């Protein structure tokens, strides 16, 4: 066991009875949080590497549980994916993001994560359409992030689905690029996506590791030449930001530009 966010986080050996029990408990408590307004979205700024302006934000789910304390998405999203709860969680996130856009974030492109499991949900497009109808916002302010690995898993199905979402006026982004074994053929096929996010595992090494620098440079050039807006994840210092700008990367997201924050704080930043 170790401490995180003030609460005891207990890890069990996978495959044991205790591990299964712990997952069932997380699933039950997460379901309750989802039903009882116990989840929030935090918005992390995405900043232009050309002029420093705010160009977007990624909505990241936050769960503060009375007994568990703050639970990390890395802990509960996999459970939500296995149990199917991520379908409802994803629908909630789209709704909450649209509400925030309507309440003062219009002008900032807000990205919401869509898990691979949601792509299997036959109700996904209808749910997105219904959410857009509930909130009077221009759909172009909402962007759905699909991981590269989800895209590759069933490329034909995924690209057809992305096209239908794009036809609703939403934007689509390829997330965690570099970690999911996409081929050039995949990239060519998802022509509805307008943005590509380079995974932070590559970005973190660019200042000191020539190979990481070469990989990120090539990914930026490829993405840009295919017409994507390229966003680097996990930018933690000015040296990384400077190198990325030199490579022609469009935008950065990471602690250097700001941690995930409330929609109000982000709106103030957008205005100021
Ligand atoms: P992700 O999509 O790759 O999101 C970026 C993660 O990197 C976030 O972690 C963010 O807080 C963290 N991060 C941001 N800047 C930095 C930095 O400069 N350095 C480092 N080391 N990390 C940084 P978070 O919020 O813990 O989320 C983890 C993952 O959980 C996300 O990874 C995403 O895959 C998933 N997730 C979060 N919210 C949702 C959601 O609403 N739906 C779904 N399906 N997945 C979500
Ligand atoms: Ca993401
Ligand atoms: Ca990502
Ligand atoms: Ca990532």
TrEMBL record:
It comes from the Bacteria. Residues 23-272 form the EAL domain. This is Bifunctional diguanylate cyclase/phosphodiesterase.
């Amino acid at each position: 066991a170790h401490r995180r966010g003030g609460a005891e986080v207990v890890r069990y050996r996978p495959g044991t009875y205790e591990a299964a029990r712990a997952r069932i408990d997380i699933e039950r408590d997460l379901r309750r949080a989802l039903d009882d307004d116990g989840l929030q979205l935090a918005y992390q700024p995405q900043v232009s590497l050309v002029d420093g302006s705010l160009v977007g934000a990624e909505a990241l789910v936050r769960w503060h549980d009375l007994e568990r304390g703050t639970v990390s998405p890395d802990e509960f999203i996999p459970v939500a994916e296995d149990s199917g709860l991520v379908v409802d969680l994803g629908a909630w996130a789209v709704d909450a993001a649209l509400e925030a856009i309507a309440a003062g974030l219009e002008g900032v492109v807000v990205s919401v994560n869509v898990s691979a499991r949601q792509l299997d949900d036959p109700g996904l497009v209808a749910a997105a359409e219904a959410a857009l109808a509930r909130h009077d916002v221009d759909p172009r302010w909402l962007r759905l992030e699909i991981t590269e690995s989800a895209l590759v898993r069933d490329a034909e199905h995924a690209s057809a689905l992305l096209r239908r979402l794009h036809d609703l006026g939403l934007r689509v982004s390829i997330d965690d690029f570099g970690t999911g074994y996409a081929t050039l053929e995949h990239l060519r096929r998802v022509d509805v996506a307008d943005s590509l996010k380079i995974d932070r595992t590559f970005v973190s090494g660019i200042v000191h590791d020539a190979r990481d620098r070469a990989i990120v440079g090539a990914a930026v050039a490829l993405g840009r030449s295919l017409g994507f807006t390229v966003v680097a994840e996990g930018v933690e210092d000015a040296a990384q930001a400077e190198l990325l700008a030199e490579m022609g990367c469009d935008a950065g997201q990471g602690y250097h530009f700001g941690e995930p924050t409330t929609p109000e704080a982000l709106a103030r930043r957008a205005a100021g």
